[in-house]
Amino acid sequence: xxxxxxxxxxxxxxxxxxxxxxxxxxxxxxxxxxxxxxxxxxxxxxxxxxxxxxxxxxxxxxxxxxxxxxxxxxxxxxxxxxxxxxxxxxxxxxxxxxxxxxxxxxxxxxxxxxxxxxxxxxxxxxxxxxxxxxxxxxxxxxxxxxxxxxxxxxxxxxxxxxxxxxxxxxxxxxxxxxxxxxxxxxxxxxxxxxxxxxxxxxxxxxxxxxxxxxxxxxxxxxxxxxxxxxxxxxxxxxxxxxxxxxxxxxxxxxxxxxxxxxxxxxxxxxxxxxxxxxxxxxxxxxxxxxxxxxxxxxxxxxxxxxxxxxxxxxxxxxxxxxxxxxxxxxxxxxxxxxxxxxxxxxxxxxxxxxxxxxxxxxxxxxxxxxxxxxxxxxxxxxxxxxxxxxxxxxxxxxxxxxx
Length: 403
Known about the structure:
The protein has 403 residues and is α/β, with parallel strands linked by helices. The chain folds into 3 domains: 4-106, Histone H3 K4-specific methyltransferase SET7/9 N-terminal domain; 125-305, P-loop containing nucleotide triphosphate hydrolases (Rossmann fold), CATH 3.40.50.300; 310-396, Orthogonal Bundle (Helicase, Ruva Protein, domain 3). It contains 13 helices and 16 strands. The strands form 3 sheets. Strands 1-2-3-4-5-6-7-8-9 form a 9-stranded antiparallel sheet, with no helix packed on it. It starts with a strand and ends in a 7-residue tail after the last helix.
C-alpha cells in the first residue's frame, strides 16, 4: 500500500490538485480534488496514481455535477448518473469505459418553459390573407401551393366545427418536404410556420432551422440536452430539419438514434404547440422515415417539390437580377430562353434549381466587370446591364454545372 501525504500540487503557478499524494511517485493517490487551468472544479473523489479511479464526481465549468459514480482509468465505469449542465438527469445505470451499457434508465430532459396551449387562439385573417398572397406569389410550385391550400382548408373547417361544438378530427401538423435543393423548401417551411400561427394552430408561428451538428453531441450525454435546447427555441412554432436523414448515419449511430428518440418524445410531450418539418431528397428521406416506426407514425403528410421548368428558371433569374439592383438586356433574355430548355433537358439527378440560377448570376457579374474594366466612365445603365455576352462567358468557361 502506497504511503501518502496531504499536498497541494501546482502547474505553471496554478493549483491543479488538492488532496493525498503518493510520496514516492508524487502523483495524486487516494481522496482529492482536481481543477482545470482556470481554477474551475473538475473532479472530486478517488485517485489512483494520477487517474480518476474509484468513486467520484465530474463537474461542468458552471459548477454543476456532470457525472456521479464509479470510474476506471479516467473513464466512467460501473454504476453512475450522468447529468446535463442544468442539473437534469440524462442517464442512470451501468457504464462501461465511458459508454452507457444497455438501456439503463435514460431520461429525456423536460422542456423548462412550457408555452400556453393554443386551443383557444383566434384566427388572424388579415395576416393569413397576406401570407397566402406571399405563398401564391412564389414562382412555380403549383402542386405545392395546392397541397398547402388544401391543408389550410382542412384546418379551417375543423376549427369552425370545434367552435360550433361539433366533433373535431385531430390533424397531424408535422410535414415532410421532399425535393432537390433550390426548390424553395426552406422558404415554404417558414411560410407554413407563419400560416400555422395566423390560423391559431401555433402560439408564435416562428421557424427554427437546425441540422445534424445542432442536435448531435460529440460525447456521451451531450445529445439530449442539445435536442432539448433546439426544441425549447422552437416551442410555439416549427423546428425545421433540412436533410434530416443525416441525423442517423447508420443503425449503430448511438448519438443519432438518441437524438431521434429524444425528439420523438418531445414532439409527443409538446404536441399542442410544437411542429416539426423535415426536408431532403425523396429517396433518402423515405428510407429515413421507414427505418423508425416512431417517425412513420408522426410524419404522414408529404409535399413534393418538383424541379423548376425552363420558364420558371427565367422568372427566377429576372427576380434575382432585379433584387440585386441589376437589369437584363433583351439579348440576355433571348439567350436564356434558348439556354434553359437545354439545362432542364440535361439536368443531373440532384439539380440545384434556384441555386443554379444564383450561381449563374454571380458568375456573370465577374464577366460583366471584366467587360467594363477598360471603360473609365461607364454609364449607370452599363454598370447595371447584364448582357448575353456575360452569360455566354459563364457557360463557355463551364463555370456552372449543366449536367
